Amino acid sequence: QVQLVESGGGLVQAGGSLRLSCAASGRAFSSDPRGWFRQAPGKERELVAAITWSGLRTYYSDFVKGRFTISKDNAKNTVYLQMNSLKPEDTAVYYCNKVSFGPTPPSATGSWGQGTQVTVSS
């Protein structure tokens, strides 16, 4: 079973940038669509962005449009989330998961990892 491992979080000032990585562990290859989610303290987990493995289709939640970019490196079996113009309200634990694209916003289809903490100071 493929496990997805998140990395790249940290502490950054408002207006700064971070790049998160989501890598598949082990030798197994995963070509499933992937998405980034986040969960802030006291809030429900929400979808941030998603991408198909072909890269032909992406999805962004309104609150990150124009600031975040999701991309992938097929050779490394890794999906990235470039986060620019970060705001304190972006503070959350960010998770990567397999997703299913459909008529509604993509939804998670795999198990959750430990995530990576992103903290944006004002």
Description:
With 122 residues, the chain is mostly beta strands. Helices cover 0% and strands 48% of the residues. The protein contains no helices and eleven strands. The strands form two sheets. Strands 2, 4, 5, 6, 9, 10 and 11 form a seven-stranded mixed beta sheet that branches. A four-stranded antiparallel beta sheet has the order 1-3-8-7, with no helix packed on it. Strand 9 and strand 10 form a beta hairpin. It is globular, with a radius of gyration of 13 Å. The model has no long low-confidence stretch (mean pLDDT 93).
Chart the SSEs and their pairings.
Layout: E1 4-7, E2 10-13, E3 18-24, E4 34-39, E5 46-51, E6 58-60, E7 68-73, E8 78-83, E9 92-100, E10 107-108, E11 116-121
Parallel strand pairs: 2-11
Antiparallel strand pairs: 1-3, 3-8, 4-5, 4-9, 5-6, 7-8, 9-10, 9-11
